[in-house]
Write a structure and sequence with these properties.
CATH class of the largest domain: Alpha Beta
Shape: globular
CATH topology of the largest domain: Spore Coat Polysaccharide Biosynthesis Protein SpsA, Chain A
Largest sheet: 6 strands, mixed
Number of strands: 10
Strand content: 15-25%
Order of helices and strands: EEEHEHHEHEEEEHEH
Strand order of the largest sheet: 4-1-5-9-6-10
Distance between the termini: 38 Å
Number of helices: 6
Radius of gyration: 19 Å
Low-confidence stretches: none
Length: 234
């Protein structure tokens, strides 16, 4: 039987990097709507929770057709609020309403190039025996090749991992970084461990050109250029 997912879209108000980011128009529609579209292609509205403290964001989602019955508590809407606590509160709300699910899927609005197929591939890799499936991209900095640390005793740079003798990136072990697009999480693991404590993590690669995460005004400009370029090619 197909496993049910609970899709959580976190969208607090008060973004500092890009003011009003979550409802800022991007290529013809508010940013939040890209994640709503993906979630609604995969699940009924009953299994999609927009987690926001901002009535304006909630109104935009409602205007786009997504019911918003849950509002995030103010204490979970600060700069210091962690994703785990935000998800746990949304899960508690879903549990109190008898919504059944076997896995939690976190879809951050800052990854508008994420596709339905990206999420499906992550869900297909999930099983109850692991803690999390996470979308990744090839790391821009490889700890065996071009990622360095400062030696606390000498103040000199040293290679992060290995002996520093590799001269070609191709010879270094593969290194990955989270791209922030998709997290498929075991609910029991989330309830019992901080996400940094997960030991059973499975990666699913996404191409770098679709892994841009919106955090700064420069990111936004690059995203618009990417979308314009893709539209012109089509």
């Amino acid at each position: 039987m197909k496993q049910k997912s609970l899709y959580i879209i976190p969208a607090r108000g008060g973004s500092k990097g890009i003011p009003g980011k979550n409802i800022k128009p991007l290529h013809g529609k508010p940013l939040i709507c890209y994640s709503i579209d993906v979630a609604r292609s995969l699940a009924p509205d009953s299994h999609i929770i927009l987690s926001t403290d901002d009535p304006g964001i909630a109104d935009v989602a409602r205007g786009y057709g997504l019911p918003v019955d849950y509002m995030r508590p103010a204490e979970l809407a600060t700069d210091r609020s962690g994703s785990r606590e935000v998800m746990l509160d949304a899960m508690d709300w879903a549990d109190s309403r008898g919504i059944e699910y076997e896995r939690v899927v976190l879809l951050q609005p800052t990854s508008p190039l994420r596709t339905v197929e990206d999420v499906r591939r992550c869900e297909e890799r999930y099983s109850p025996e692991i803690d999390m499936v996470v979308s990744v991209m090839p790391a821009r900095c490889n700890p065996y090749y071009n990622c360095f640390e400062t030696d606390p005793q000498t103040g000199m740079l040293r290679i992060s991992k290995g002996d520093g003798t590799l001269t070609r990136r191709q010879d270094a072990p593969e290194a990955w970084e989270y791209n922030g697009a998709v997290y498929v999480i075991n609910p029991d693991s989330l309830r019992s461990l901080p996400m940094g404590g997960f030991r059973r993590r499975v990666p699913v690669e996404m191409p770098a050109e679709r892994s841009l995460d919106l955090d700064t005004p420069l990111d936004w400009t690059l995203m618009e250029l990417l979308m314009d370029s893709s539209e012109n090619e089509n």
